[in-house]
Specification:
heterodimer; A: mainly alpha; B: alpha/beta; three-stranded parallel beta sheet; 11 helices; 38% helix
């Protein structure tokens, strides 16, 4: 127990860093996922092809491989960025494939008549998507998108192994390895701090779901 | 806090689970290690006799020992394609075991990465740990150190064409410079005081990733104990060089159960003997001493066993 109280600042700093990564990645991945979903339902065949390929390649690769290719592959061809940027980019790119698919389930749930009606009154594809389809799709897709975001928060722990320092897991390694602390309480606390992010996130999602439910 | 009341019973439970797992692992390693010593009849028992009840006597009677070392530290403890790890730490541990009348075949090697060393000693899973184990006060709260048997020092490695960095002092002068080390290691802790900002430190789980990041310009330097850097320079085909002097003292000790002063004293005496009869030097030249540019160390004066 002393381990936790004595090093509370270290845990708290790690918590803030992890929280920061999660917030950046959440917005990033929602934006990218929406764009890819738009690609996948667009009337332009090449765009659909790109979207489908993206989802099938990225979704079927382990996150570690995606991270490795970005953090170690890009510098190899002369692209140098901080590992923080690389890590967030990889997490966004990886999660966006899942967000896209969750969102597409929301899009599919909307009766085809809606899109047809929108087209009939002269809306373009983009207008149709942004004012008719997506607002409804998001509301329907809150539970699956929420699960994807929560999975992303937990996945963020792996960034510590790819050059990002000072996050929750990085500080846990610091405590157990260099400071010689007992790993059990340290990792229990890390789990606790992750719950501190994921459980409120889950509650928020439940609230949003109730608020945004479409009664059919 | 609310959590404190929640946690204690849970922690106990985990401890129990951990203990069960540890026993299981022990049982497995005991089987898998092939250390079934059907008394190979070490008749050459010229060894000293030890006082009853001491760790030495128990180990000598058992005729076998379990030792923790690193499996991924070139020159000190590295397990390659052979079944046994090789390196300076390994040789030192063998010298200690030999003094107890235990030959190499009866040593079971257990991998002890940095994070689990104290735990494995406390749980009694290993009798001693020789694993580039820097003696420090925080660790001394949980275990006892015998030694030091070697004194490493931290240095900085850069790309061969780099003349901007001359030592650890260069990092404060130029906050754009990035330095890499292993997460949670003592060198990573040490370098922090030489940095202008925390974001200058990049950490990975192993040094090979740091070396890769240095090669691809992601970082400008790698820092850790000189011996490890020499190994990396040797493998880099002239791409890296070491700059500046050593700026820390990293005394490596043998980790044993806390408070076992008799065992500690035995290790200190054995090492001293090994230094006198040349086996200490031999252990070095056959392992870490093979790296170009390394010098044969002399055994540092041992700390008092307390």
């Amino acid at each position: 127990m002393n381990v936790i109280t004595e090093n509370f600042d270290l845990f708290f700093q790690g918590f803030l860093k992890t929280l920061g990564i999660c917030i950046i990645c959440m917005f990033g991945t929602l934006a990218l996922g929406t764009v890819v979903a738009g690609f996948r339902v667009s009337p332009v065949a090449p765009l659909r092809g790109v979207g489908t390929m993206y989802v099938n390649v990225v979704r079927n690769c382990p996150l570690t491989v995606v991270l490795f290719l970005i953090a170690f592959g890009l510098p190899e061809i002369g692209i140098n960025q901080s590992y923080y940027t690389f890590g967030c980019a990889a997490l966004i790119i990886y999660t966006a494939a899942f967000v896209c698919e969750a969102l597409r389930s929301g899009i599919n749930a909307i009766p085809a008549g809606q899109a047809e009606a929108a087209r009939a009154i002269g809306l373009t594809f983009t207008q149709n998507l942004s004012s008719v389809i997506l607002p409804q799709a998001f509301r329907t897709a809150i539970p699956p998108v929420g699960s994807v975001i929560i999975a992303m928060i937990k996945n963020s722990a792996i960034l510590g192994a790819f050059g990002v320092s000072g996050d929750l897991l990085g500080n846990a390694i610091l405590l157990t390895s260099s400071r010689g602390q007992d790993p059990t309480p340290v990792y229990l606390s890390i789990g606790f701090f992750f719950l501190l992010i994921t459980i409120p996130a889950g509650l928020l999602l439940m609230y949003l779901e109730r608020k945004a439910v479409i009664l059919r | 806090m609310k959590t404190s009341t929640l946690r204690s019973p849970r922690r106990l439970r985990t401890a129990k689970v951990a203990a069960v797992v540890a026993v299981g692992v022990l049982a497995l390693t005991a089987c898998g290690g092939g250390s079934d010593s059907d008394d190979t009849g070490d008749a050459e028992a010229t060894q000293a006799t030890f006082e009853a009840g001491t760790t030495m006597e128990t180990l000598q009677k058992a005729g076998k020992i379990t030792i923790g070392t690193k499996f991924d530290q070139p020159g000190f403890g590295l397990k390659g394609l052979t079944d046994e790890p090789e390196g300076f730490d390994v040789e030192i541990a063998k010298i200690i075991a030999e003094g107890l009348g235990i030959d190499d075949d009866n040593i079971t090697w257990v991998e002890t990465p940095s994070a689990v060393r104290e735990t494995k000693i406390e749980d009694g899973e290993v009798s001693l740990v020789a694993a580039t184990y820097t003696i420090n006060d925080e660790r001394k709260e949980r275990i006892t150190f015998a030694g030091p048997y070697y004194e490493a020092g931290q240095q900085v490695m850069v790309r061969s064409d780099d003349s901007a960095i001359t030592g650890p002092e260069s990092f404060k002068a130029n906050p754009d410079l990035k330095v890499c080390s292993v997460a949670g290691s003592t060198p990573a802790d040490n370098i922090s005081s030489y940095l202008a900002s925390k974001s200058q430190l990049v950490t990975f789980d192993v040094y090979s990733k740091c070396a890769d990041a240095l090669r691809t310009n992601q970082v400008d330097a790698v820092t850790t104990d000189n011996v490890i850097l020499l190994g990396l320079v040797g493998a880099s085909e002239g791409k890296f060089k070491v700059v500046g002097d050593t700026f820390t003292k990293e005394p490596y000790g043998i980790g044993i159960k806390k408070g076992d002063t008799a065992f500690c004293q035995y290790i200190v005496d054995t090492l001293k003997k090994a230094s006198e009869d040349g086996s200490y030097e031999e252990a070095w030249t056959e392992t870490a001493g093979k790296v170009e540019g390394s010098t044969v160390p002399t055994l540092p004066t041992a700390d008092a066993c307390a």
